[in-house]
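Table 4 source record.
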Amino acid sequence: MKTCLIVDDSRVIRKVARQIFESMGYSCDEAENGQIALDACKVKMPDFVLLDWNMPVMDGLQYVQALRQLPGGDKPVVVFCTTENDLAHIQQALVAGANEYIMKPFDADIIRGKLEQLGLIAA
């Protein structure tokens, strides 16, 4: 079973994202900031990371940069999911190691479409 790590400081966002990913057959773990997510990745590397940008302790940009330095940290597909929507933020995220970017608010169709685009689920 594919695994997804949902990293967001909003419990509501994590709950909604978990329901969407579980409906598509993913096993999900959650983290409320980048440091907790990074610690979780050191124990078990996920297949997919849905990542918020603005979080306390360690933000999404710091997390993805640190993740990509870990052994096996090049493997997870990382998709930023944030309200930061200007081109500079998107480019910064991609340069830091993110694979893709989606905007909040999101729904199941947006997530499914992105997973199809990335080749992670069948269209």
